[in-house]
């Protein structure tokens, strides 16, 4: 099994490569735990997987240049647009079983850039899955 | 026939590098956003798409 140091990740939002403006990616996919326990001899609980909630949180550097972080993300949030999101581990190689790509349509429900004097401007953006397909890992490139 | 685009952004667009041209069927919203932020420009419009836009607008 090959472990890795995250260095060459690819992050693309609405077709725009934001990899160099991004320094972290956190994907969360969670099925709600629904308790369907009844009385039983052992007292054990029984659960079913309920609704699925998915999101990706990325930390971006503040970049106000053409096609930079702000110009890509703010209009998406402002206009309540649904756009494509893609993340894979190695931007130097194609999507494959060993370099799977997380893809899906997302929204930016909260946009909250900020700055502190003397510090690098960076802020988190949460991309929320926007349709029934959700966010999934794929072994092949998008059509 | 797809529309021909040229990538203007230094960071590329959809895997294409700055200066490259590519054919694609972007949705009107995708194309509008990408043009507004200076990522792409239209080199040659898909004639069918252009007719649809005229009809709509």
How are the secondary structure elements laid out?
The complex is a heterodimer of chains A (143) and B (57).
Chain A: E1 10-13, E2 16-17, E3 22-35, E4 47-61, H1 69-78, E5 83-88, E6 101-108, E7 122-129, E8 136-138
Antiparallel strand pairs in A: 1-2, 1-5, 3-4, 4-7, 5-6, 6-7, 6-8
Chain B: E1 3-7, E2 21-24, H1 28-36, E3 40-44, H2 47-56
Antiparallel strand pairs in B: 1-2, 1-3
Q: What would your notes on this structure say?
A:
The complex is a heterodimer of chains A (143) and B (57). Chain A has a single domain, classed as Elongation Factor Tu (Ef-tu), domain 3. Helices cover 7% and strands 42% of the residues of chain A. Chain A has 1 helix and 8 strands. In chain A, strand 1 and strand 2 form a beta hairpin. The longest helix of chain A has 10 residues. Chain B is built from 2 helices and 3 strands; from the N terminus they run E-E-H-E-H. The radius of gyration of chain B is 11 Å and the shape is globular. Chain B has 57 residues and is of the alpha+beta class. The mean pLDDT of chain B is 85. Chain B has one domain. The chains are: A mainly beta (143), B alpha+beta (57).
